[in-house]
Amino acid sequence: MTTAQTQRGPCIEMERSLPSEVAAISPFVDKVMFLIRQTGSVPECETEVEIALREALANAVIHGNRENPQKHVHIHCCCKRDEVSIAVKDEGRGFDLNKVPDPTALENTSSDHGRGIYLMKAFMDEVRFEEGGVVVRMRKTASHPAKKHSLK
C-alpha cells in the first residue's frame, strides 16, 4: 500500500496480483474492502463497490484466465477522499462487449450466469473496458449512491 498525490488530491493505492482461483476472490475482496472502509472514501457505498469488485474478479478468473493456474489477475485500487477507483486486468484474450448477451432479455433471465457486467454498471458510476476487454476500470464517488432503479 502506498500514498500518492494525484491531480485531485491524495490517494492511498494498493496493487496486488491474485492467482486465477475462485477461492482467492473472497479473501482478497475482504482486504480491499477493509482498506476502503478505513479510508472512508465512499461511505454508504461500500456494498456497491464490493459487489462490483467481486463480479470483476470472478469474470477475470473464470472467463478471462479460465482458472488457469499459470495466469494471474492484477488489481490496482486507489482510494481518494470521496472516490474509489479500481482496475482489474486478466491475462486472457479479452472479449467483445457487444457480443455479451443482455441478462435482462427474456431468453436470458433464467440463466445462472451473465449478470456480472450488468451489476458492475448498475453499482459503479463509471465502468470502462479497455485493451480488448482484458482490463476493466471502475469508479465510484461518495456523491453517487446506488442508482434508484430495479436491477430486473
Can you tell me the residue ranges where pLDDT is under 50 for at least 5 consecutive residues?
A: 148-152
Q: Evaluate the radius of gyration.
A: 15 Å
Which H/E pattern describes the elements?
A: EEHHEEHEE
Number of strands: 6
- Alpha carbon gap, first and last residue: 38 Å
Morphology call: globular
Helical/strand content category: alpha+beta
The fraction of residues assigned to DSSP E strands is 25-35%
How much helicity do the residues have? Answer: 25-40%
Spatial ordering of strands, largest sheet: 1-2-3-4-6-5
Task: Sketch the major β-sheet.
Answer: 6 strands, antiparallel
How many distinct helices?
3
**What do the pLDDT scores average to?**
87
Question: Would you kindly provide a brief summary of this structure?
Answer:
The chain is of the alpha+beta class and 152 residues long. Helices cover 28% and strands 29% of the residues.
